[in-house]
């Protein structure tokens, strides 16, 4: 269970990275399309790899979606806190020690909220999934982000999001890789 928490914690920043990738030449519409395609692939692969039955999927994916939404919210809060800390380090900035300590405490609190969200998701998932499915979820959470990160790096230098979903080496991560 602790390993699942660790893996999920590692997954959170990757989804933030996936949301942010696109570069200056990409229109927001393309990023939205990419995110929708990514989510579709994620759900399909997760369903297949976990061999979810329809009743399990009905219980699991609302938990997963809530977890992802909470993760997005916490990433935004973290970005805001990081921006404040960066501004304190800018030339000419004269923050007080109290302001800096408050910003650092806020950042730590966001980290605790992320761990709490992970723990809640983990506990709730364990009520829906079998031990075998939990093990496969762990494997998925390790493999999918690795492959996704590779695709995203390649995408930055390529024409657009649709190219990765047409098969071949740019296809979305496969469970068997």
Topology:
Layout: H1 2-20, H2 28-50, H3 54-89, H4 97-128, H5 131-156
Strand proportion:
under 5%
Helix content: over 70%
Structural class: mainly alpha
Order of helices and strands: HHHHH
N-C termini distance: 23 Å
Which segments are poorly predicted (pLDDT under 50) over 5 or more consecutive residues?
4-29, 159-172
What summary fits the major beta sheet? Answer: none
Q: Please compute the radius of gyration using only Cα atoms.
A: 18 Å
Global morphology: globular
Number of strands: 0
Number of helical stretches of at least 4 residues: 5
Average predicted local confidence, pLDDT: 77
Description:
This protein has helices at residues 2-20, 28-50, 54-89, 97-128, 131-156. With 177 residues, the protein is an all-alpha fold. It is globular, with a radius of gyration of 18 Å.
Descriptive tags:
177 residues; single chain; globular; 5 helices; mainly alpha
Task: Provide a brief overview of the structure.
This protein has helices at 2-20, 28-50, 54-89, 97-128, 131-156.
